[in-house]
Amino acid sequence: MSEKNESDKTDLDLVRGIKSGDSQAFEDMVARYHARVYSLSYGVLRNAEDAEESTQDAFLTLYRKIDTFDESKKFFSWFYRVALNTAYSRARRRPPVKTVAIEDYLPRFDSDGHFASMSLPDGALAIDDEAALRELATRAEGFIAELPPAYRDVIWMNDVEGMSANEIAEVLDISIPAFKSRLHRARLYVRQRLSEISSPPQAIAAEAAS
Amino acid sequence: MTNKDGKIPPGCGTGAGTGSGPHDEVTCRKLILEFLLDFESGAMPAEERTELERHFDECPPCGIFLTSYRATGKTLRMLKPSEVPADLALAVVQFVRSRSGKS
Lengths: 210, 103
What we know:
The structure holds 2 protein chains of 2 kinds.
Chain A: H1 11-19, H2 23-45, H3 48-65, H4 75-92, H5 130-146, H6 149-160, H7 165-172, H8 176-197, H9 204-209
Chain B: H1 28-41, H2 46-58, H3 60-78, H4 88-100
Helix pairs in contact in B: 1-3, 2-3
């Protein structure tokens, strides 16, 4: 029987290896997923040390609970839920973080569907150069952290982690419409907050179109 | 809501439009809150997209909003997953070994 390289093995190959006590299979699984689990954990915890410890705990849970994994399901969905729940559990042990009421930052409209005058977009979101863009990105990360977890996790997974809609919906056990609603509202919130801190709008149109 | 010519843009909360598509009564509210995500994702059928493009072209507030929404997307794409500690994989394996006595 030919041996597969780590990269050739499917998740299910590795799962079965771990179940059978193959320590190399576990190490291969760590090599495959530790970075994504760390980043996912960081999205919840916003702290490198906590994210590292949460990653370790998630893999310990994987190791201990792998026999409960239903092999007819997708492994990554199961394990990402494990990782998220581990991070949530750690987050609950910390002092509560104040989150925003997202509805307060969404655009407002009159009864006829027009922008309410108080909510007219002023276009004040300027990106003059790469340095300005990086500064805005740093601020955007902070704004994402202010969001309620249901919104924060969706925008982090999609816009930062690059996970697909289907992956996120599976991991969070939500519908695609619910995913889209949360993602859009989260982006609208970040847009509003960036607009509040940004400089005049002239530079943005050409930049955003580039 | 008027455009630069002082006219109410077609489809801008007026109920006007092609009269044939699902978005023939596209208000600013619907455009921004319901359709913008699909419009930007490219998942929208061409006919519907064309109608919304017309709204954006002819309704200054929505046009400005679209520009800033796109700038937000550009900003968010600058964010990178947090830097993973170089020795994390080894630390994870050692941690699990120490807790399980196996692996």
